[in-house]
């Protein structure tokens, strides 16, 4: 595991358990299993729970497999991206899921491991691949050095909500003609010039997040994964999602609300031609946020938002 243990403190565990109700027993999916903190608590809730854990990070898969080994056949850990969940679970799920969880955060292990390239600490390589330090995905450096100036601008505008996105894209393009960007320092330097000020930690976090989202195609994967998981839920099956920024939370909120509407036809349609009834209903009208005590113990939980939905 890159020379260090996989560490990640699970967020809002009790709130997740209240939404998913694993004490009922049944088949559960943790589609972002990470260090298996949530998964272990789901398995502990009932001896009749079985769980499939899924993660694209090989370090997480290894850590979760070791942590859940004591549960034997009740726990199965698979490698893959949750956007491919239907294909990955095809041979393991016959009658559907009783519950599923998506925890969309970057783990502490990923942030704290310099080689993973998720932080903006000096000297950190521009990697940011959720699937590890190797593999077929392009790195953040690949993206920044090869994407068109227009594509870069759209990334910082849409994913980083940066007002000076044109100038930032232009500055990156100018610098890479002289020398390819390779470390966090290179991106911070370009952004400091384009934004015309020294960057605050909040600025760095926002811009690096934008690049990470683009590298891993996170928003597209989220839409595809949510849709696939919803189709796999049994009647009364429950879905809980923890998001950490407004772009993710907006997608979750909008999809949950659409699935909870009886009619999704455009207003100008004279006759309903859609499904005509809701697929399920919301378990949370507003997102659940971590309490002050949890944030004090785990400051990285501060931005977490939990939403729940139940299949009809």
How would you characterize this protein structure?
The chain is of the alpha/beta class. It folds into two domains: 190 residues, Vaccinia Virus protein VP39 (Rossmann fold), CATH 3.40.50.150; 98 residues, Putative methyltransferase TM0872, insert domain (DNA polymerase, domain 1). The chain contains 13 helices and seven strands. It has a seven-stranded mixed beta sheet with strand order 3-2-1-4-5-7-6, with helices on both faces. Helix 7 packs across helix 8, helix 8 crosses helix 9 and helix 11 runs parallel beside helix 12. The radius of gyration is 21 Å and the shape is globular. The N and C termini lie far apart (41 Å).
The major beta sheet can be summarized as: 7 strands, mixed
Structural class: alpha/beta
Q: In percent terms, what proportion of residues is strand?
A: 5-15%
Strands side by side in the biggest sheet: 3-2-1-4-5-7-6
CATH fold label of the largest domain: Rossmann fold
Annotation, overall tally of beta strands:
7
Topology as H/E string? HEHEHEHEHHHHHHHEHEHE
* CATH class division of the largest domain: Alpha Beta
Q: What is the CA-atom radius of gyration, in angstroms?
A: 21 Å
Kindly report the average pLDDT value. Answer: 92
Low-pLDDT segments: none
Terminal residue distance:
41 Å
CATH H-level name of the largest domain... which superfamily?
Vaccinia Virus protein VP39
By DSSP (H or I, 4+ residues per run), the number of helices equals 13
| Secondary structure: helix percent | 40-55%
CATH A-level architecture of the largest domain: 3-Layer(aba) Sandwich
